[in-house]
Specification:
By secondary structure, the chain is an alpha+beta fold. The chain has helices at residues 37-41, 46-66; strands at 5-11, 16-22, 32-35. It has one domain (5-66).
Length: 70
């Protein structure tokens, strides 16, 4: 996806996920944490919750690319 690598990981036992983004020029964003409790409470598995986080981050990257930021 435009040369961007996104890594999403589960923070075990906290109802949170962490993600980092590696940009095409080699810059790596600091890790950011997001709550996933609402996905888990809605019945999603941890894997599905992480997939939802990935979809959101991909959407942000697509928007940034469309705006000329990447």
């Amino acid at each position: 996806m435009h040369g961007v690598l996104i890594v999403v990981t589960l923070i075990s036992g906290k109802g949170k996920a962490s993600f980092v983004v590696k940009h095409p020029k080699g810059n790596v964003s600091p890790a950011k944490e997001v709550e996933i409790d609402h996905y888990l409470e809605a019945g999603l598995s941890e894997r599905d919750a992480l997939s939802e986080v990935l979809k959101i981050v991909k959407g942000v990257i697509e928007s940034a690319h469309a705006a000329g930021i990447y």
